[in-house]
Amino acid sequence: MNLAFENAAYGVDDTSILTDVSLSVGSGEVVTIIGPSGAGKTTLLRLAALFERPTGGAVRCDGADPWALSRAERLAVRRRIGMVFQQASLFEASVARNVDVGRRVRRPWPQRLRGFGRRLVDRWLSGEPTVDDRTREALELVGLDDAWDRDAASLSGGEAQRVSFARALATEPDLLVLDEPTSDLDPRNTAILERAIDRARDRGHGVLLATHDMHQAERISDRVAFLLEGELVETGPAARVFENPRDERTARFVRGDLLYDDNELFA
């Protein structure tokens, strides 16, 4: 999937959150959005995941405006997008069942019932729970393939976030939308998720990521976009944006200049 923001804007009542944003992400590409808190990063991701409709401009998926489609057609497009939020949200169930839930809800009811019947038969024949190949593969990508039968409540915060990532991957999305997925994780879990993002890119998934971690953005991104007060200030190859930014506001942000007055910082 090629996702493109075309002069996209978003506002609530009289408050403008995003203004005139033009940005794209293609298959096998990691595009990272950086910027201070309140810049509009999460809103931009919600537009990408079709959770919100732009109030100006357009968001296009493979050239089509999903908001001009029927509800059923738009749902089909949305199901090609997987989103991982900053905080993991798991069900009271096994790790495997948490990973598989996204795939199950995408199936028509007859397929869901047939799948349930197959799982019952497999469990009856083997005498123990089973896990299908796609779920196991998604867990392997995040280093949890041996934890499929654990209760999700027993997981650490980092492990839970890795399960959330695996759940998104298991649906085989064309585009992954990630909202600061490693912000509360230790270095080990962060490294595992960064490797999983690399592998997702290698498998042809497009990745749109928001992060406050400048080192992470530089490590894993093909392109970086700097968002400030709802405006896309600068975008370009990661190495160029970090080593030779074209806008002074970008330069000051990536240097980590910290002033008490944010207005002074970006004046």
Automatic annotation (TrEMBL):
Keywords, sorted A to Z: ATP-binding, Cell membrane, Membrane, Nucleotide-binding, Transport
GO molecular function: ATP binding; ATP hydrolysis activity; phosphate transmembrane transporter activity
Gene Ontology BP terms: phosphate ion transmembrane transport
The ABC transporter domain, residue ranges: 3-254
Entry's Gene Ontology cellular component terms: membrane
Protein name: Phosphate ABC transporter ATP-binding protein
